[in-house]
Amino acid sequence: MITSLLRTLIIYIVIIIAVRIMGKRQISELQTTELVVTLLISDLASIPMQDNEQPLTSGLVPIFVLISLEIFVSIFMMKNNKIRRLICGKPVLVVKSGEIQEEQLKDLRMSHADLFEALRQKDIFEIDDVKCAIIETNGLLSVQRTEVATNEN
Amino acid sequence: MKIRVFSAIIMLFLAVSLCVLSLNLTEKYYDDITEKIELTEEYILTNNKAAATATALELAENWEFQQNIFSLFIHHSGLERTDLTIHSISKYLSIDDTTAALILCEDAKISIEEIYKDEKPSFWNLF
């Protein structure tokens, strides 16, 4: 049991350091790569924590590699837009001048109900109030209201 | 930014170093253990019981340390089997059961080879 306790302590410290090194984005909206890395790290950390038969290094080595890869990829994405687009995709315009872009919506596998739900979360209840709405690469919806709707507010 | 890049490089270096170190140690210990087992087998086959027992005991003694190092990077269940086999060789020799000792020598050779093969990077291991 003491081994489990010490292992948990070591892994906890490593994860805290990992999140600090990877930056604040890891605790807010996640990009594709960040989501993947976060999921993988949590999974990798739990195996040697639960199973004392498993060497600790078998969890730590992949975590170290993932953290470094995540940092390198984020730097490459920052410096090169093409790489960013390749890894994260590009924002998609789903509403233009109050008109839903059906093709784009279909590509995103998003229903009207999903779109309206996201709009309602932005306090928009009429599609005509939307000048343009974009699904960002991290999955969030950005909305620009029409001038009339903005003035009404 | 610079600190992050530096940390990433350090972590990658650490990970690669650990991998290289584990591979080198596995290779070194594999050679050492296999050599000792083959020597024990040779002594058993030439009816040199005293030398066979001494080699088997030396093998078991060295294994104690090698096992600790192996446990840092190899799944412990694989090591337990090898541990039991290596320690049993000298016991069988002490009761003059050379046939069982020879079988265990072969068993130990196979299990240590399995450890080495699992650690060694290969196409089959990757997939």
What does this structure look like?
The complex is a heterodimer of chains A (153) and B (127). In chain A, a hairpin with a 2-residue loop joins strand 1 and strand 2. In chain A, strands 2-1-3-4 form a 4-stranded antiparallel sheet. Chain A is an alpha+beta fold. Chain A has 7 helices and 4 strands, in the order ααααββααββα. Chain A starts with a helix and ends with a helix. Chain B is mostly helical. Chain B has 5 helices and no strands. In chain B, helix 1 runs antiparallel to helix 2 and helix 2 runs antiparallel to helix 3. The radius of gyration of chain B is 18 Å and the shape is elongated. The interface between A and B is medium-sized, with 18 and 20 residues.
How is the main sheet of chain B built? none
* Largest sheet composition of chain A: 4 strands, antiparallel
What is the 3D shape of chain A? elongated
What is the β-strand count of chain B? 0
Radius of gyration of chain A, in Å, reads 21 Å
Count of DSSP H/I helices of chain A: 7
Break the fold down into its secondary structure elements and pairings.
The complex is a heterodimer of chains A (153) and B (127).
Chain A: H1 2-22, H2 32-50, H3 57-79, H4 81-88, E1 92-96, E2 99-100, H5 102-107, H6 112-120, E3 130-135, E4 141-145, H7 147-152
Antiparallel strand pairs in A: 1-2, 1-3, 3-4
Chain B: H1 2-45, H2 49-70, H3 76-94, H4 98-119, H5 123-126
Helix pairs in contact in B: 1-2, 1-4, 2-3, 3-4
List descriptors:
heterodimer; A: 153 residues; alpha+beta; 4-stranded antiparallel beta sheet; 4 strands; 60% helix; B: 127 residues; mainly alpha; 5 helices; elongated
What's a concise summary of this model?
The complex is a heterodimer of chains A (153) and B (127). Chain A is built from seven helices and four strands; from the N terminus they run H-H-H-H-E-E-H-H-E-E-H. Chain A is α+β, with helices and mostly antiparallel strands and 153 residues long.
